[in-house]
Design goal:
The complex is a heterodimer of chains A (217) and B (569). Chain A has 217 residues and is of the alpha/beta class. In chain A, 38% of the residues lie in helices and 24% in strands. In chain A, helix 1 runs antiparallel to helix 2 (58-77). In chain B, the strands form 2 sheets. In chain B, strands 1, 2, 4, 5, 6 and 7 form a 6-stranded antiparallel β-sheet that branches. Chain B is elongated, with a radius of gyration of 31 Å. The chains are: A alpha/beta (217), B alpha+beta (569).
């Protein structure tokens, strides 16, 4: 089975924006891949003028929140680096390696790589400026810069979401059969946090060698 | 379509259901209040929800029989135009902001789909078609939330104020072509087609990337909506009965009531079960129930705020309407807070109102506890946050600032939705206003309010409460009004109103002891017999007034404390 890979466009985000951005993207992907019966929920982003859709499965929301928290704790130790999250969908197959033993292996049929560059929030104040005596011109410029950056990030997120939608629309033939009478998640998935030094290609190589992916701790 | 979605379906069923569901998704994400004022209750998914594994809830009434909107079968294109319709100016043309096109295109003669396939592969094709249709529908659902019109939809749904535009829709099987200039203003998004045995199921959308040209702004305030349950309602306290229908209020000195209002679909927006019809006729009622809206992140945006949110408007308007004594009554010390308090939150909205004084004087509860000035009438002012909207129709009797449309124009725009009648004409043209729920209430409120104001027996609901609230406390003549007021400001008045009352009393109360007079009074105490009986009598009278007021203040304080304790627990 082919494993379709989608590498999303890199997003430059500040640390406090990571959670919102990852929620938006991960939930959008899962909504398009949770092909069981779902009751969709619209979520309005707090930081951006965006609305994304959740599939409405509490377990999924919980797992995504946990993974995002884990990701944030990792990246906070290594700021100003590019980090990746990989969302993979797989099938489990029994592989009989010997006569009396068998083991299950995961066969990945789709992977999504979400690339985030985490930056530190810059403060545009000169050392000699006090809180009282700051230059309003300088402060307003930084606010304007932040606003522009936020607008650009919002556009990039929207672009990523359209990229996801385009991908799920175009690549459908590799999807496994949908189990009948299933609600919510129809395919098992996992979310992996890649180290910033490891690229997606390295990860693919490692997975091909080991046969399955374990979540990095 | 009686077939279960997951078994025994045919390609035609799939395509037909897909078009129906896509239309449902589009309208639910674009037309405010398509379900009426009451959002459809969440319940166990029904068979209709199971199609394409996407539970969208009950379709809006306009889509109950989707075959009416898709009359020509699955092979005809389905064109859904989403329009921004000007509300204030009927002469301005409406503008299409989105055009969704879904159709099943017949396969080309050379296409492998054109040739009949074997039965064994039919099942496989149908399953594959269904699976891809599921994903396509999910994509449509997501894209609807990413397009610029989503923001407009959220604004119209979330706000308790009306804008100068409405979102309406038009469904047809023919797409009126755009001019070149118009087409240049649109961007195009095409979904990957799904192959079916009947052809390729293709969906695309033309949308305006920028809606800033429409200058969406608040045009006027929403009319009051009926609040059926509120704190202190007769449902909570049966002793405080309000007239149940307009006929009951004729000739009575009870509070006014307005004709039945509600959603266009006739469902009272209330959670109170048995007493809902009784409460439904009390537009002055108010509920403290939290409102919902798109700010509620767990709700789909097409679910409008609950009726409670709009019921606040009704209450607020009526309180405002009944509180004009601030502008009417001459008082020794002008109630500064009242003028500014009433005007400042409303300055951007309405002008001061004049209410016939005759109606007021007949109401017992309006008399001030201070007997020295029987003309001092007042009512508890509405809480600041609640006085936000008024009924534009009733503003015929109020002096409205410029810019607000008159009620005639407003009711014309929100007339009976013609779309329901026109929906089945030959063109398949279907047009509904974006807020059909206003239809019934607007015209009726416009008629009823002036009549109420002209009624010589007009009285205020709170006055009725004040009058009707009999309490066990002894009513001496001196303290009668004070205790009346103190106990009339009971549970059904808001805490803010009670505070406002207290402040007003404090400001308008006669001085306990005048500084110049105090010296005189002290002298009179020393020279008791010298000053004569008049001053001592006057002194004792002042003291008794002070004691009365102190008692009333104490009672108010106890009431406020009990209310706050009750809320904490």
């Amino acid at each position: 089975m082919n494993c379709e890979v989608c590498e999303l466009k890199e997003l430059v985000v500040e640390q406090f924006e990571v959670r919102e951005v990852l929620r938006c993207i991960l939930h959008t992907i899962i909504f398009h891949r949770a092909l069981g019966l779902v009751r969709p929920r619209d979520i309005n982003c707090e930081l951006f003028e965006l609305t994304y859709v959740q599939c409405g499965v509490p377990e999924v929301e919980k797992e995504i929140e946990e993974k995002i928290t884990e990701f944030i704790s990792k990246v906070s130790k290594h700021p100003n680096r590019t980090s990746q999250i990989c969302l993979s969908f797989y099938e489990t197959k029994d592989k009989q390696s010997a006569w009396f033993s068998s083991k299950t292996e995961r066969v990945y049929w789709e992977r999504w790589f979400i690339n985030l560059q985490i930056i530190n929030q810059r403060v545009h104040m000169k050392p000699n400026q006090t809180k009282i005596g700051f230059d309003p011109g300088e402060n307003s410029f930084s606010l304007e810069e932040k606003k522009l950056r936020r607008t650009a990030l919002e556009a990039s997120i929207r672009e990523n979401l359209f990229q996801i939608i385009k991908f799920v629309n175009e690549k459908m033939d590799h999807l496994p059969h949908i189990p009948p009478n299933v609600e919510g998640i129809s395919y098992p998935y996992e979310i992996a946090i890649l180290s910033s030094s490891e690229s997606s290609l390295d990860m693919l190589k490692r997975m091909l060698q080991t046969g399955h992916q374990t979540t990095l701790s | 379509m009686a077939a279960h979605p997951d078994s025994g379906r045919t390609t035609e069923q799939i395509v037909s259901q897909f078009l129906s569901k896509a239309l449902h998704a589009i309208l639910a994400a674009r037309i405010p209040y398509i379900h009426g004022s009451t959002p459809p209750p969440s319940r166990h998914p029904r068979k209709r929800d199971r199609w394409f594994h996407l539970a969208l809830g009950d379709p809006p009434p306009a889509l109950e029989h989707p075959s009416g909107l898709i009359p020509n079968g699955v092979m005809e294109p389905l064109v859904v135009d989403i329009l921004l319709t000007p509300r204030d100016d009927p002469t301005m043309p409406e503008a299409i902001v989105e055009r969704w096109l879904a159709q099943c295109e017949a396969p080309a003669p050379w296409s492998p789909l054109h040739s009949p396939a074997e039965t064994s592969s039919n099942s496989f094709l149908v399953k594959r078609t269904y699976k891809k249709s599921i994903i396509l529908l999910r994509s449509i659902y997501s894209v609807l939330r990413l397009l610029p019109a989503q923001r407009v939809f959220k604004m119209l749904c979330a706000s308790n104020q009306s804008y100068n535009y409405d979102l309406t829709y038009r469904v047809s099987s023919f797409a009126e072509p755009f001019s070149r200039k118009e087409e240049a203003e649109f961007q195009y998004h095409c979904f990957s087609p799904v192959e079916t045995q009947s052809g390729q199921l293709a969906v695309s959308v033309l949308y305006r990337p920028n809606l800033s040209q429409f200058n969406l702004e608040i045009s006027s305030l929403l009319p009051p909506m009926l609040i059926t349950d509120y704190v202190g309602s007769p449902a909570a306290d049966p002793m405080r009965a309000f007239p149940a229908s307009p006929s009951e209020r004729i000739g009575s000195r009870s509070s006014t009531s307005f004709p039945l209002r509600g959603s266009q679909h006739g469902q009272p927006s209330t959670s109170a079960p048995a007493s809902a019809p009784l409460l439904f006729n009390r537009p002055h009622s108010w509920t403290g129930a939290p409102s919902e809206g798109p700010s509620n992140r767990a709700q789909p945006p097409h679910h409008p705020p609950t009726g409670s949110f709009y019921r606040k408007s009704a209450f607020n308007f009526d309180e405002f309407k009944f509180s004009p004594p601030f502008y009417m009554s001459p008082t020794p010390s002008p109630p500064k807070f009242s003028g500014s308090y009433m005007q400042s939150p409303l300055r951007a909205e309405t002008a001061p109102v004049s209410i016939p004084q005759s109606g007021m004087s007949k109401v017992k509860g309006l008399r001030s506890p201070n007997l020295s000035d029987p003309t001092r009438n007042f009512l508890p002012p509405p809480s600041p946050r609640s006085v936000r909207t008024t009924d534009p129709s009733s503003q015929d009797s109020f002096r409205r600032p410029d810019g607000l449309r008159n009620s005639d124009g407003y009711s014309n725009v929100y007339g009976t939705p013609k779309g329901l009648k026109d929906g089945r004409d030959d063109s398949g043209r279907f047009s509904l206003s974006g807020s059909p729920r206003f239809t019934f209430s607007r015209s009726s409120s416009r008629i009823s309010v002036p009549d109420d104001l002209d009624d010589p027996d007009f009285s205020y609901p709170f006055a009725v409460d004040d009058v009707d609230s009999s309490d066990s406390q002894a009513r001496s003549n001196d303290g009668k009004e004070a205790s009346d007021f103190g106990h009339a400001s009971s549970s059904h008045k808001s805490q803010d109103a009670a505070v406002g009352v207290l402040v007003h009393m404090l400001r308008t109360a006669a001085p306990l002891r005048d500084s110049t007079y105090s010296s005189q009074s002290s002298k009179s105490e020393l020279q008791e017999e010298g000053l004569g009986s008049t001053s001592s009598f006057f002194m004792s009278r002042k003291a008794s007034d002070a004691l009365e007021e102190l008692q009333s203040y104490k009672s108010i304080k106890e009431m406020l404390l009990s209310q706050s304790k009750g809320k904490l627990h």
